[in-house]
Amino acid sequence: MSLSLWAQVDRYFNQHILHDDPILDATLKESETGGLPNIAVAPNHGMLLTLLAQIQGARKILEIGTLGGYSAICLARALPKDGKLITLEYSPEYAKVARKNIDHAGLASQIEVRVGEAIHTLPELVSEAPFDLVFIDADKPNNLPYFEWAIKLSRVGTLIIMDNVVRDGKVINGNSDDANVKGVREFTEAVGREKRVSATALQTVGEKGYDGLMLIRVNE
């Protein structure tokens, strides 16, 4: 099995069930032009986010880590007309690109990009909680505090999605010096101790390589 084969399989399914999406294609192009790293979720994972938000019946969504706005657009497409998505981005440059993409997608009235370190902006959201869905795809060393804040900003039944938890299989290395791996492991072990949630982790392969995500439901 190889990355080339995984990418071919992704393209096969995308061609037959996702079809063309000029808005998302333009989002990726604008992000590339703006010099953003090519780390947005893959198209099939973007649709997974849309479906999960729809299944959840989400009316209020929180995203930590905006990048170019690709995943925010995918999530916001599931919202009702009076729904709201708040996305937190550290980089003013990335936020500028994201706002342009969000506006082009016709979702500027539903998506708000807030700039600053999420560790500092998350406490400002207490008055706007609870959120029905929280998607975390940001700096991995802060996964644990992001998760702890997600719990605080949730209700019973909130779905928390943590992306990039497999790290090409490196997550199993307890001796890793990689801050990203350490962040994922610290978060994972905290989820296992947290009595208020139920969770599972899914390994994924595709055009973005070998990784995975964790789905967490807040139970109390």
Mind explaining what this structure looks like?
- This protein has 220 residues and is α/β, with parallel strands linked by helices.
- The chain has one domain: Vaccinia Virus protein VP39 (Rossmann fold, 3-Layer(aba) Sandwich).
- Helices cover 41% and strands 24% of the residues.
- Helix 2 packs antiparallel against helix 5 and helix 3 runs parallel beside helix 4.
What are the key terms here?
220 residues; alpha/beta; Rossmann fold; seven-stranded mixed β-sheet
What can be said about this structure in brief?
The chain is of the alpha/beta class and 220 residues long.
Instruction: Compute the number of strand runs.
Output: 7
What percentage of residues falls in helices of 4 or more residues? 40-55%
Structural class: alpha/beta
Rg, Cα atoms, Å: 17 Å
Mean pLDDT: 97
- Fill in the CATH topology: Rossmann fold
Number of structural domains: 1
The largest sheet is: 7 strands, mixed
How far apart lie the N and C ends? 42 Å
Strand content: 15-25%
The CATH fourth-level homologous superfamily: Vaccinia Virus protein VP39
Uncertain regions: pLDDT < 50 for 5+ in a row? Answer: none
Given the structure, what is the number of helices?
A: 8
